Amino acid sequence: xxxxxxLMRIFWPLDIxxxxxxxxxxxxxxxxxxxxxxxILKDVDSRNVENALKVGTLFRNAAHPMERIHELCGQSSMHxxxxxxxxxxxxxxxxxxxxxxxxxKVPQISCARASTMQIILFERPLPHRMQYIxxxxxxxxxGDKSELVSHEPxxxxxxxERDELKNRxxxxxxxxxxxxxxxxxxxxxxxxxxxxxxxxxxxxxxNNELAAFLGDLFLWVLDHFLSCVEALRPILAHVIWFIxxxxxxxxxxxxxxxxDLLSLLTLHIYSFYLASARIFNWQYTILLSLFQLFxxxxxxxxxxxxxxxxxDLDQLLLGTILFTLLFFLLPxxxxxxxxxxxxxxxxxxxxxxLDTLLACxxxxxxxxxxxxxxxxxxxPGGICFELRDTPQLSHITCAFTTPPTSHIYLKSVPLTFRxxxxxxxxxxxxxxxxxxxxxxxxxxATGKFVPPIHRKNLYSLQxxxxxxxxxxxxDMWHALTADAPKKTSDLRVNGxxxxxxxxxx
Length: 505
Hints:
47% of the residues lie in helices and 15% in strands. By secondary structure, the chain is an alpha/beta fold. Among the domains are: 6-124, Cytidine Deaminase, domain 2, CATH 3.40.140; 191-337, no CATH class.
């Protein structure tokens, strides 16, 4: 019985035909029990194949240089590795015997010197698809295959192919002509985009003269602001670098600097909002007063009420003319006001989000949260009483009678997570109450100024332990540098004051 050397590894390509015809297996032998199968030669003698491989006559008329193939594969020559579908043939100890057939998915391989087999099946790469540049690349379109098929002259397919080739040549000549021309398209500047929106914003027909006046006014301010920004452009990179470098002082520092930088860079939008809001508010107030004129009323400023009033015919006629003019000019003013009001509210929302993030970073209850997770009993949030079952004492002999007794367990209740973040809920309620209140909506509808939420309302919850009146820097400096008042010594003996000479008074 032959000795077994251990595991044998065989690399077997999947494109080998699965037939039951006898053949000779050839390939490379990396070691005694490590072989790489290349092909199976059908109906040949193994000795003749071995001699042809040694002499080199087997690949005499090969299309590719075998020396180059052996060099790339790291082998000197191929060998006969075994036989296929030859059950009665005798092979050497290191050669394999493979059984193949259409019904077998994988080959059945045996070797006299191997105790176990490891067959590695692989798909052999196609050489013509491994080139970096190919004259016949892989087709990605389904219609390309029909172009390779030649049709007989005179048929319909041949005529269609001829027309298609003619169109291709024509398109190619047009493409070559287009290369001789240069087409330059500049993107629209912000000024051009603004001018386009001035004429027909959202498809509305506005008053051309008023729209041109307001547009020129805002564009003039925008040009001056852009000139100032252009002058500051050389130091803008240093400002951004400083904001990024300030991150070493904590996450809140770059957020605060970015919020201030946002306020400076959107200063022109703030001025546009103020101007358009003031114009809209004035026009709204005048229209409201003229509407009261039609009703025979007037607004009493001193008593803050609506009183009756008699108007002449000239006053009513002039009021009607002014009301008509202002009413038809109102859509133009509303369009400008609505545009800048939306931009202003977006900036206010972003700044409110940054301020909220700052408040969360500066006053996040990290210690309380970790203590709540680690040892919840050290963070009490209240107490509760728990009624326990009375233990049975009938089996215990007592010298006295025990009255009915209830056992109540007093235990501490840990602080809830909602209570830990209660201040943040109040902060969100204040922000929502400030920006989503009917007062803010009324201010937007009437053109009144909508101020952002004050920092005091944001940080008053977190700094609730501080005094209402805080000492300034100068007060602290005077308190530290001021001389302490001298105290006069009060000498008393037996309750009586002594004078300088030590005598009693």
